[in-house]
Amino acid sequence: xxxxxxxxxxxxxxxxxxxxxxxxxxxxxxxxxxxxxxxxxxxxxxxxxxxxxxxxxxxxxxxxxxxxxxxxxxxxxxxxxxxxxxxxxxxxxxxxxxxxxxxxxxxxxxxxxxxxxxxxxxxxxxxxxxxxxxxxxxxxxxxxxxxxxxxxxxxxxxxxxxxxxxxxxxxxxxxxxxxxxxxxxxxxxxxxxxxxxxxx
Length: 200
Description:
By secondary structure, this protein is α/β, with parallel strands linked by helices.
């Protein structure tokens, strides 16, 4: 089962989906930006237009899923400062951490797979660590596998900031479609119930 430390009796109402990544063309196609990829896929399929919110320092748009309005957010500060835009958005929208779902990359998960986490802890992800400092605990993480670095001697930062291989890129559209459907299920049914209806 692809749940990592899921709290008992969690009944989360997702109103904000955040995709993590680094801003700028230099990082646009890197593994670290998988959160941006997925939110772009959701926005495009719902014919949404991104608008830059200066107060949040993030691109934002909203969608309607099963009569529920959900805000989408792509922070435009670097990954290790992700907590600042998220704190500003949650304050304005009057949202609690339990209303937030964050899509982030994870090198401990195979490419194309995912895990869901709700308990505190960053697992070494600097973006999640910064968000925890500014938002507290209680948010849900949809951790997307980007594969593991092949060369043990290479720096971790070099791997996460590298592009997907041509073979991986050919699979990305199908993987993103699966992830998009899973997020829609989580919004519709909640985190716990939604797990029974998600594509593996």
